[in-house]
Design a protein that fits this description.
This protein is α+β, with helices and mostly antiparallel strands and about 120 residues long. Helices cover about 35% and strands about 25% of the residues. α1 (about 5-15) crosses α2 (about 45-60).
């Protein structure tokens, strides 16, 4: 079942439409006050990582949402987009594996987004 948060669902849909791989959503609201959700995705190249980032920004701007934080765009190994209730982590595969956010935040609740992704 998709997230209760419509912004999170929209981000997942955008990432899936742009062929982001291995999309995971972790509800961390019970673990920290920094945000409610981590959205983690892998891009196949630095060009795709940037394209995923650009697409999320463009779609959310249509709803009047802009990131409060954006890091890593220039190198495109790991781009972080911070929104109030969600942080989007867009990785190259090797970088995602190295940092292992899913392991670090394993106490969070994985959100089943299989009904959103193709």
């Amino acid at each position: 079942m998709a997230s209760k948060n419509e912004t999170v669902n929209k981000i997942v849909k955008v990432l899936d439409d742009k062929k982001g791989r291995n999309i995971e959503v972790i509800d961390i609201s019970g673990l920290t006050t920094m945000t409610d959700y981590f959205i983690i995705v892998t891009g196949g190249s630095d060009t795709q990582v940037k394209a995923l980032c650009d697409s999320v920004e463009e779609e959310l701007e249509k709803d009047g949402l802009t990131p409060t934080n954006k890091e890593g765009y220039r190198t495109a190994q790991w781009i972080l987009l911070g929104y109030d209730d969600a942080v989007v982590h867009i990785f190259l595969a090797e970088t995602r594996e190295f940092y292992g956010l899913e392991r670090i935040w394993k106490d969070g609740v994985k959100v089943d987004v299989s009904d959103i992704v193709s």
